[in-house]
Specification:
The protein is an alpha/beta fold. Helices cover about 30% and strands about 25% of the residues. It folds into 2 domains: about 160 residues, P-loop containing nucleotide triphosphate hydrolases (Rossmann fold, 3-Layer(aba) Sandwich), CATH 3.40.50.300; about 70 residues, no CATH class. The chain has a 6-stranded mixed sheet with strand order 6-7-8-3-9-10, with helices on both faces. It binds adenosine-5'-diphosphate (ADP) and magnesium ion (MG).
Length: about 240
Amino acid sequence: MSEDFIYYENVTVQYSPFVLGLDNISLKILKGEFVFLIGPTGSGKSTLLKLLTREVQHTDGHVWLAGKLLDDWKEKNIPILRRNMGIVPQDCGLLPNKKVWENINYALRAIGVPRRTARKRVVEILEQVNIAHRADAYPSELSGGEQQRVSIGRALVNDPPLLIADEPTANLDPECSLDIMKILYNLNKLGTTVIVSTHEHHLLSVLKKRVINLSKGKIISDDIPSSSFEVFSKESYVYTGPN
Ligand code: ADP
Ligand code: MG
């Protein structure tokens, strides 16, 4: 299974005798893919993502990540698992009493990056998510979209091969949503595997990426675009692909 980056094999999550989170799902995600998860509330999007972060455990089937079987992953090894992924929470979860750069710096220091290296990395990360100009602001002084960019930046401190974002644009207006998707898109272009759940259906046809549609814990469609386009020009949101 190791050639697939992520492999869900006949996975079921039974939360309780009457609540099914996922119903016998099989799904492969390759290294370097960009995948959208869509589906109505309660369809299983978060459950699917939480199996990878080990916030949820499957009750049947097998889950593989980077060639490792997660079925019997020990509690004490969960930090090792999460060290290899970036997790963008829906609500940003920034530390309110720390400035933007301090939020990133804090996350870097927390994983043991030496002070001087962290200072350099903070600058790189802030530029990567296009928020360097607000480095000295506090989270409360930022727009929702700016806060979410910092949150993505914080998820990048490990330089993770996998980025998981569960409805990162849920609280944003359409323009900010596009801005966030553009950042995820550019990270993916640099090689990061990105899985993002979203309600922003209007963006799907623009981004031309794989879309997995869930309903009641099952995959009802899995559309991989036949060709990928250079969707964004480097500096703007101009769509350069065919309609
Ligand atoms: P989505 O993210 O698409 O809204 P979820 O994965 O959160 O869907 O939920 C799928 C189903 O599992 C829903 O019926 C939800 O109520 C249920 N569920 C999710 N998390 C839990 C939990 N911790 N305990 C019990 N049931 C849950
Ligand atoms: Mg959810």
